[in-house]
Design goal:
By secondary structure, the chain is α/β, with parallel strands linked by helices. It is built from ten helices and ten strands.
Length: 275
């Protein structure tokens, strides 16, 4: 990408390059809807494993959901698993190839609904894997059904009048749920609703990958993301929903992290939501 304000040198116009596509992604068009957050997160994940110098040692697990084609976008070895089984597949890969960086990329329906057992038990065992969890509060690919993370009052194709406690129960807060376990080493919730949040999300992903490479144990980054299509909003309106509705219910911050800077596998629970 070239900077809009170019410099002139005599009659020659010099454009300064300030951004370029990471080699961690393949050079093909993505299928995501306009305004979707998946493409942003894909870029962050790819930039991190490239910057860590582990592209050739990285293995990703693609989900069933909007990012089902993740195997076409990430320029690393990828495996497509059955719905919700990402943590189980990642566990098998990491135990057999412990020197690899293994991540499972999953949406809220894939992880918190169909894959909830795999998520909980992988975390309880402190499997040395990383989960990149996209929370957009909806089943995106299959038409906008209510997900475990759908907010109270939020409409979906299966809750047309809005989610209610009586009919549907409460939305599941994944970071808070996992923080109650002893196994997880690092848990953080971020968002991609503005540039500063994108920067923080990249730092969280890097931290999670670094802890895995150090052999510390289970790490998860939950990312609040927008779904303009199934929310029936414009991209800008969907960003406002993240700020005004999602973040108050899903506070951003670190929920668990290693205690101290050494190699100890002890962890401490952190009070998040101060941002």
């Amino acid at each position: 990408m070239n900077r809009g304000g170019s410099r002139e040198k005599g009659q020659e116009i010099i454009m300064e390059k300030v951004f370029e596509r990471t080699d961690g992604l393949t050079d093909i068009p993505m299928r995501y809807c306009p305004g979707c957050g998946h493409g942003v997160v894909h870029r962050l994940v790819a930039e991190v494993y490239m910057e860590l110098g582990v592209q050739n040692k990285t293995i990703g697990i693609g989900p069933v959901g909007c990012s089902v084609f993740a195997d076409e976008y990430f320029n690393v070895d990828m495996i497509q698993g059955a719905h919700g089984r990402g943590p189980a597949i990642a566990t098998g890969i990491k135990r057999n190839l412990p020197d690899r960086l293994v991540f499972s990329y999953q949406g809220d329906g894939d992880l918190a609904s169909i894959g909830s057992a795999e998520m909980l038990h992988a975390a309880a065992r402190s499997e040395n894997i990383t989960i990149i969890f996209i929370n957009n509060a909806i089943y995106g690919m299959t038409g906008g059904q209510m997900a475990p993370t759908t907010l109270l009052g939020m409409r979906s194709t299966t809750s047309p009048s809005g989610r209610t406690v009586k009919a549907n129960g409460y939305p599941i807060r994944v970071c808070e749920l996992l923080a109650a376990l002893d196994g997880p080493i690092y848990l953080e919730r971020t968002s991609v609703d503005k540039p500063a949040a994108v920067v923080k999300t990249k730092k969280a992903i890097r931290r999670a990958f670094e802890y895995q490479l150090e052999g510390r144990g289970f790490t998860l980054v939950e990312i609040l993301s927008q779904c303009p299509t199934d929310w029936a909003m414009t991209p800008l309106q969907s960003l406002e929903r993240i700020r005004k509705e999602m973040i108050p219910y899903y506070p951003l911050g670190v929920y668990k992290e290693p205690a101290g800077a050494g190699k100890s596998k002890t962890t401490e629970t952190v009070k998040a939501g101060k941002e």
